Amino acid sequence: MTTTAITYTIYTVLSITLTVWVGRTLFSNGRIFIIDSFNGNIEMADAVNKLLLVGFYLVNIGFVSLYLKHGDQPENLIQAIEYISTKVGVVLLVLGGMHYFNMRNIAKMRSKALGKPPSKPPEPTIPTVPEEKGKSV
User: I need a surface site. Which of 25, 61, 76, 77 has the fewest CB within 10 A?
Assistant: First the structure.
């Protein structure tokens, strides 16, 4: 295998691994924000969260794939390290940009949701005990 093929393989595996790790982290930790943005509608929030994850993967893995061809092919170890470093750095910037874009949209949805009444009434936290007729405390 040539230096170029090894470098491309390392870049692709590393970039996709980072994309999946970031996606899973955002998916699990962002759920609470999306639920809040949908006024506690858990089914809707979970569905949107899954759709955001799929879109995140499609955009970022597509970018990683398209960006593979960009730039000069590395011919030695130093060029290979620089190639991988530059490519992964750009991928990380794109992942950060996607995160910012998603958080900005979720924040907008949340601010709209706070202006509306909740879709479901909140459950009481303290159970009420009905008083029996004829008894006084």
Answer: 76
Alpha helices by DSSP H, listed for the chain, are 3-37, 42-67, 77-114
Q: Which residue has the tokens 């907008």?
A: 108
Q: Are 60 and 94 in contact (CB under 8 A)?
A: yes
pTM of the model: 0.69
Whole-angstrom distance, CA of residue 20 vs CA of residue 12: 12
Give the residue among 103, 114, 130, 127 at the shortest CA–CA distance from 39: 114
- Beta-carbon count within 10 A of 133 CB: 5
DSSP 80-99: HHHHHHHHHHHHHHHHHHHH
Residue 53: CB atoms within 10 A of its CB come to 18
